[in-house]
Structure formats: structure tokens, C-alpha cells
Fold:
Amino acid sequence: SAVISQKPSRDICQRGTSLTIQCQVDSQVTMMFWYRQQPGQSLTLIATANQGSEATYESGFVIDKFPISRPNLTFSTLTVSNMSPEDSSIYLCSVENTRNTEAFFGQGTRLTVV
Amino acid sequence: GENVEQHPSTLSVQEGDSAVIKCTYSDSASNYFPWYKQELGKRPQLIIDIRSNVGEKKDQRIAVTLNKTAKHFSLHITETQPEDSAVYFCAASKGNQGGKLIFGQGTELSVKP
Structure:
């Protein structure tokens, strides 16, 4: 499986600020995804990061709040903008194995907004 | 859109017993059903998956069954061990997008020695 590195692993941020999370994969992958896991909850898909085009957002998530970049086949960023305490969550990137469509996760970014 | 329901939310078993976690899905077009294990503070790890052209799949102590007609799939863990204690998530996806997953609510499994 691909090795996925996410940075930062955790951060504490002031409300109203923005944080950009990076996801680096050790091999080229077609599909990259961003998920949110609120405290004690399940995972919710935020968006699909498309290489060379705008991300595709799921219902309830918008580009102004969660802008995503995907400049190449090994890297993506998720920005959490104008943060509020309700944005405190773990954010995870995920990549899909091109050969058999299995999905693997990065270690996550634990965000606390104060 | 797809909705995945998972039961139970918590499950406590004695070491050596079996554990069963059940999920139902709503979208008949879903065709890929992975199960993830998440230990405290760790990332979700894929433990087993099943595709809609198969009714059952087994990997050592772990098995998954799928009933397409009922839109129901289950995870079976036999001879449970304390290290099986974790939160387990079922998920579903469709088409060729195995990474675009809709997750169940999770089951916290506790295996008591």
C-alpha cells in the first residue's frame, strides 16, 4: 500500500484563522480524498481532490470553507478557513489504490480551535 | 444518496468468544464494502473488504458476509483477543471509486481477558 504522510499531525489554532493541511503520497495515485472525523464520531467525506481541476465537494461542504489543491498526482492540501470551535476535528486524507480501489488513510491532523 | 447504518454501537465480549457487527446500506448501486479498524489515536486500517460479486470472504479469524438482496453485510471475528479491542467501521462505495466511502457510525468492540 502507498505510504501517506500528513502534516501537521496536530495543531491548536485561534478562531478566525486558517490552517492548511498537507498530504504527501510516495507514489502517484489517481484519487485522493479528504475526510473529517469529529470527536467520537465516524468519518465523513469532505471532498474528492481532483488533479488539475477543482475539487468535488460533498453535500454540506463548500469550497470557501474548505479550499483544496491538488497540483500533482502525489500531493494535496486542505485548508480549513475562518475556523470556529465547531471545526475541531481530525482531518484525514485518503488515497485509492489504482489497481484494486482499496483506500488507505494518512495518520490524520488533530485540529483544536480555541 | 447512500446511507449506511451500523449496529451495535458498542459490543463487549469475553476473550475467545465471537463478535458480529452488522451494517445495512440503502443504495443498491453500491458494490464495494470495506471494514476498517481504528485504534485509539490511530488512523483507520483496512482489515477486510468484499465486493458485490462475492457472498463471503474470510481472512484468518475475520470474515465478512454480504446479502445483496437485503442490502446487508456483516463482520465476524472469531476467537477474539484483547488486541481486537478497537472501533470498527463499515463503509460502502459504488462504481470504481473505492475511496469515496460512506461510513457507518462505528462499533466500539471491547474484548475482556
Remarks:
- The longest strand of chain A covers residues 89-96.
- The mean pLDDT of chain A is 94.
- DSSP finds no helices and eleven strands in chain A.
